[in-house]
Specification:
The chain contains five helices and eleven strands. By secondary structure, the protein is α+β, with helices and mostly antiparallel strands. The protein has two domains: 117 residues, no CATH class; 89 residues. Helix 1 packs across helix 3 and helix 2 runs antiparallel to helix 3. It is elongated.
């Protein structure tokens, strides 16, 4: 199997559902970066799991693979500052858990650490280009860009003339949980005088008129 995702979790028996969800959202900008920039590229093969869940708990347990092909590992680490946690603190927690996990299981630890270093070099910013398209008969290139930080997901539409940024339009600002945003956009379509950003769930498209770009030229 190929390792595709990593989650940092809290013990559901020790924390409320609200605390668990709040913590989950704050971890995703870091773990999404590792999944995209490391796991997706190296395609690390495992014997029987494609996901790792590292759970902070009052007591440690030997890691095991459940019926969902998830490697579950409870790590003894008390944690009491969900609201005040920052990216640097999350990195420390993640590395602590990984160092415990590699005592039991082979994972791409070196590659993950290199990716964490890259995340730090990028000032904890997780941004990626989702789609690029050129407006016909013009010099304007459109870039549909995603930005994920510790609190929010933002979908941006940037318009460039050559390398010059004409304008950047915020299309969506949502929770940092992938389930809150991953179906909200699917394609970037150039129409006669409008840019349409379609959704993946049959929701209403986002429409941006060309005049929003031309006024910035």
């Amino acid at each position: 199997m190929i390792l595709k995702s990593i989650y940092l979790d809290l013990d559901r028996e020790e924390y409320s559902s609200g605390e668990v969800y709040s913590f989950l959202k704050k971890t995703r900008h870091l773990l999404n970066f590792i999944e995209r920039e490391c796991l997706k590229k190296i395609k690390f093969k495992t014997e029987n799991f494609d996901r790792i869940v590292l759970t902070l708990s009052k007591e440690s347990e030997t890691p095991f693979v459940n019926s969902s092909k998830t490697l579950v590992f409870k790590v003894k680490k008390e944690f009491n500052s969900i609201e005040n946690i920052n990216s640097s603190g999350l990195i420390d927690l993640l590395i602590f858990c990984f160092k415990k996990l590699i005592e039991f299981v082979i994972i791409p630890f070196v590659e993950i650490m290199e990716t964490i270093d890259l995340f730090i070099e990028n000032n904890f910013e997780n941004e990626w280009v989702y789609k690029k398209k050129k407006i016909p008969n013009s010099q304007i290139n459109l870039v549909l860009k995603c930005k994920l930080d510790i609190d929010f997901f933002t979908l941006l539409l940037d318009a460039f003339e050559g390398k010059r940024l004409l304008t950047s339009i915020t299309l969506l600002a949502l929770d940092s949980d992938e389930n809150a945003y991953k179906y909200k956009f699917k394609d970037l379509i150039i129409k006669k005088d409008t840019v349409e950003i379609t959704s993946g769930m049959g929701e209403e498209s986002i429409l941006v008129p060309f005049s929003d770009f031309q006024s910035a030229i």
